[in-house]
Every structure is written in C-alpha cells, then in structure tokens.
Amino acid sequence: MLTPWVYPTTKKTDKYRQSLVIFQKTNSQWVSSETQVYALLDTNGVLETPFFQLLTASKKDKDYALHASMLPIKTKNDLIILPTEAGIDTYVYWDKDTYTLFEPEEMP
Q1: Cα 49 to chain center, whole Å?
Q2: What is the DSSP string of 76-107?
Q3: CA–CA separation, 50 and 45 (whole Å)
Q4: Please, which residues have CB within 8 angstroms of residue 19's CB and are 6 or more apart in sequence?
Q5: 23: helix, strand or coil
Q6: pLDDT band of 51, cuts 50, 70, 90
Q7: Between these two residues, 79 and 83, which has the higher pLDDT value?
Q8: pTM above 0.85?
C-alpha cells in the first residue's frame, strides 16, 4: 500500500478516502499468480474534487510523448493522468520499482 498524497501539512489519520487500486499483470490473463495489486491510498480527498476524471495515456496514444515529457524520468510505461481543477495534470507512473506520483509545479 502506498500513500502518494501525503503532504507536509497532512494530518496523520487512519481513514482513507476515495483511492486507486492498480492491477498490474505480466501476461494476457486478467488474474494469475503473477498479477500484482497496488493500493494508492488517499487521506486528503484529492480524488474527490468536483468533475474529477481519471485518464490514462498508453504508449500507443498520439499524445503519449507530450505527457511522458512532463515526468522527471524517461519511461515507456502507460501513465495515469489525474487532471486538477487548476488545469495542471498530475501523473502516476511506474518508475521500475513502484508507482510514483508526479505533481508539476504550478506555473504563474
């Protein structure tokens, strides 16, 4: 279980709000002994904003390169895109070890 939305101002709590669960598979079967499950837990309500819509970018998509260029590392994995009310997309990506949250700095 990961808690990517923990910020310096986050109050410690054992209560989780709407969160993400990712099923990562390595073969064509939906569930197998090789399927890994990752729970990305949210205590802040980040995923409960009005008009929230979870998006993905597959490496086959035409706009994938644009999204991937925003990340601090190079990756060829699919991306989870979390649009924000401020219009600055947040990304969840696989960094070869775990799922990582990337929140670009707001531009003035």
Answers
A1: 15
A2: -S-EEEE--TTS--EEEEE-SSSEEEE-PPPP
A3: 11
A4: 39, 40, 41, 42, 47
A5: strand
A6: low
A7: 79
A8: no
CB 65 within 8 A of CB 74: no
**Bridge partners of residue 102, in order along the sequence:** 91
Distance CA 9, CA 56 (A): 28
- The residue count of the chain comes to 108
Which of 79, 85, 84, 86 has its CA nearest to residue 101?
79
Determine the Cα–Cα distance for residues 28 and 25; give it in Å rounded to an integer: 8
Q: Sign of the CA dihedral 28, 31, 32, 35?
A: positive
Is the pLDDT assigned to residue 107 strictly greater than 70?
no
Structure tokens that stand for 75 in this block: 């990756």
